[in-house]
Every structure is written in C-alpha cells, then in structure tokens.
Amino acid sequence: MLPLRRAATVLLSATLVIAPAAQAWGPLGHSVVAELAQRHLSPAAEKEVEHLLALDHTQSLADIASWPDEIRNDPRQQALWKETRALHYIDFRSPDCIYTPPRDCRGGKCAVEAIPHYIAILSDRSQSDQTRLQALKFVVHFIGDVHQPLHAGYKDDAGGNTYQVQFEGKGTNLHRVWDSGLLGTRGLDWKAYAALLDSEGFAPLPPPIAPLENPAAQWAEESCRITRDIYPSGHTIDQRYVNAELPTADMRLREAGRRLAEVLNIALQNG
C-alpha cells in the first residue's frame, strides 16, 4: 500500500488527468464551491459523503464548508485553530509565482501541502469516521481557499489584508473585498449563486503543468498570477472594477467546485 501522503498525491494528480484542458472566500463563496462539488459527486462519493455528514446531522457540504474558519471563535477548538491557521493560504516569495516548497511553504505549513495531507486521511478507511469527517471539512475548505487569489499572493501585504481600499462608500481592505464583497454584489444566496454558475456547465480547466508533483501547487500558482492584476489603481473599488473582476472570481469558484468534486470522487470511490 502506498504511504498516505504518496497516495494523496496520486489522487490529486488523477484529478488533472481526468480534466485536461482545464479565510479565502467568506461563507458565501465556500458554500458555493461546496454546492458546485456536491452537484457532481459520483454515486459512491455521494453515499460516503452522506455517511460522514450524518455525524454532523447534515447532508450538505455547504454546511461544513466554513467550519475551518469558524473554529477560530470556538474556545474548545483553539488548539486546532492554532495548529491549522497557517494552512488556509500560501505566501509566494516571488512574483514569478513558481512554487518552491522550502521558500514558499516553510515546514509544510501552507494550503498547498495541507490539501494532500487531508485527502490522504479522508481516503483512508482505517481512520475513524470522526477523523475522516474532520478531514473532509478541511479538504472542502482548503480547496476553496487556494482558489481565492489573495490566499496565494506574493506581495508583502498579508494577502491584501493591509491594502486599504474604498468599496461601496466604506473603507475596507482588498482581501475582504475578494473574500465576500465582490461576490455579494450579485445579491444571491449560496444556493442561487451555485445554480447560476452550474448552469454555465463544467469550468474549463488548464492542462497540468509539469513537473509539479502536487496539483494543488498549480492551483495556487494560478491564484498567484491572478493577483498581479487585481490591485485597483487609486485604492478604489468602483463598478468598472466589479464588472472586470467578478467574472474572474466566478471562474475561480467554478474551477474550485469542479476540482473538489473530482478529488472527492476519486478519494471516496472505494466503499
């Protein structure tokens, strides 16, 4: 049997083979990604997801998609939050956006390394259901995170958190705009938003980039390259900016949903 981490890398790589020429988001974005994925689960994956979610008395991936953020405010989960807080993002150290683990993911503490780690736990049927449920929550969340461009930035501004902007007549930061503000301009709840994006069909995915061994690195590199062009001139988010960038945000949601579905379909295919 392959070691867990190696097995997860194989699973991730398979998602890129399947789809050739193919806090991050706030609760709205994470729920949209989760719902898009759930709409495209295989029967086997759907059955196993239903089995695991029953432990939390829910049937919806959207209901657990923001849990890794929510534990920040749970006094009972502070140790876990401290252990996992650095896994929600990756800081590229160069605008070339080429993933170099020792430089960009020191000690393996970043989203790119967290994704295969938790996929390995999720796919290991020898683990307890509670352990696998927790892994499912992290997989759903971190795949969403790595597709939010500012969770894979290269500027020294904490992923846009210290880049102040004016949006809808109020002061905020660029990270918050991409987390929730930009998506909120549609005025849709997560179910309606997911239905709208799903009506456009499967997101076309870029082909795999060789020689990356961990496809999550490619997803992060894609996000990093997007950040080169999303800093507004004059620190103002106006309607022209929304019109230009909302389609990019929508595409990242669609890509995340498709990739999450493919990961879960492979990881949970054997009952």
Automatic annotation (TrEMBL):
<dbReference type="InterPro" id="IPR003154">
    <property type="entry name" value="S1/P1nuclease"/>
</dbReference>
<keyword id="KW-0732">Signal</keyword>
<dbReference type="Pfam" id="PF02265">
    <property type="entry name" value="S1-P1_nuclease"/>
</dbReference>
<keyword id="KW-1015">Disulfide bond</keyword>
<feature type="signal peptide">
    <location>
        <begin position="1"/>
        <end position="24"/>
    </location>
</feature>
<keyword id="KW-0255">Endonuclease</keyword>
<keyword id="KW-0479">Metal-binding</keyword>
<protein>
    <submittedName>
        <fullName>S1/P1 nuclease</fullName>
    </submittedName>
</protein>
<keyword id="KW-0325">Glycoprotein</keyword>
<dbReference type="InterPro" id="IPR008947">
    <property type="entry name" value="PLipase_C/P1_nuclease_dom_sf"/>
</dbReference>
<keyword id="KW-0540">Nuclease</keyword>
<keyword id="KW-0378">Hydrolase</keyword>
